[in-house]
# Entry
Amino acid sequence: MTFPYYRRLSSRQKAIYRASDEVVEILLANPAKAKRSAAGVRRALQMDGNPATQRKEVARAANSLVDELCRQLAVDPVKIKVLTRRPSYAESELHGLYTFEKGKQAQITVWMRTAFLRTLLHEVIHHLDYRLLSLADSFHTEGFFKRESSLARQLLGDRKAKPKTEKKPKPKTEKKPKPGQLKLPFE
Ligand SMILES: [Zn+2]
# Structure
């Protein structure tokens, strides 16, 4: 099954889409070690006190988690930038931003929000699409979301065994995702 936007893609893009859809797992060499790094991010997210200090601590922990993931998967590192708020240039963005320029280190920008770790992992999957799977484009396919879940399972533990331990109530002011937002090929 493909998402509806598939029909609008060029034949070259369709081929990339299908290649993306075929890979459903990202297997870490040492999930226990990566899980400890993920726990460090969670601890930083739960810190009380000065938001600037917390942001720094979250950024440090997020960088060490993603460094560990990149090491285990033998791909180029990606720098994580953490903002306290959603930047104005990303007004329509629900997730983080994954950016790279030729010859420069790739960067993921995320902001402090609900489901921070899930958002971070989502962006890491974009990085892995290029650097691990060598895809020329990174589409949101079913395979993409399965890869995201497989990584989350290894890092956050078995969510079925411990339901809802990760979830925090959403603030009422948070914008609801527009229907179809996830079907966009790029973000
Ligand atoms: Zn995305």
User: Anything to note?
Assistant: The CA atoms of residues 25 and 35 lie 17 Å apart. Residues 95, 122, 126, 140, 187 surround zinc ion (CB under 6 Å). The longest helix spans residues 51-73. The chain has one domain: 4-183.
